[in-house]
Amino acid sequence: MERYLLVARSITHAQQMMKVLDRAGIRTRVLRASAELTGRGCGYTLEISRRNYARALDACRTGGVQPVRVILVSGDTRQEVTP
User: Fold this and answer.
1) Rounded to an integer, what distance in angstroms lies between the CA atom of residue 20 and that of residue 23?
2) pTM of this structure
3) N- or C-end of the chain: fewer Cβ atoms within 10 A?
4) Complete DSSP assignment for the chain
5) By the 8 A CB rule, do 15 and 6 touch?
6) Could you tell me the CA-to-CA distances from 44 to 24, 30 in Å, in that order?
């Protein structure tokens, strides 16, 4: 199953994105992220399904809370994608 991880710079940023996505009717899950994903200390990501990806990015843009990075997860493979 493919899914996307929207990388947030802090727990507050993750909560803001989650609120925007929730208002858009997009279910998310907040997960702790390793330094490998965030590029610095521990951080947070929001996990969204593949089918909600485009809507989620639009909602984040409209809500003014863009992710720091976007990671596509497919099985054991992770790949950064351009939003």
Assistant:
1) 5
2) 0.88
3) N
4) -EEEEEEESSHHHHHHHHHHHHHTT---EEEEE-HHHHSSS-EEEEEEEGGGHHHHHHHHHHHT---SEEEEEETTEEEEE--
5) no
6) 20, 7
Give Cα separations from 15 to 19, 29, 56, 78 (angstroms): 6, 10, 14, 23
**In this predicted model, what pLDDT tens digit does every residue of 1-38 receive, in sequence order?**
799 999 998 899 999 999 999 999 999 999 888 766 65
Distance CA 7, CA 45 (A): 4
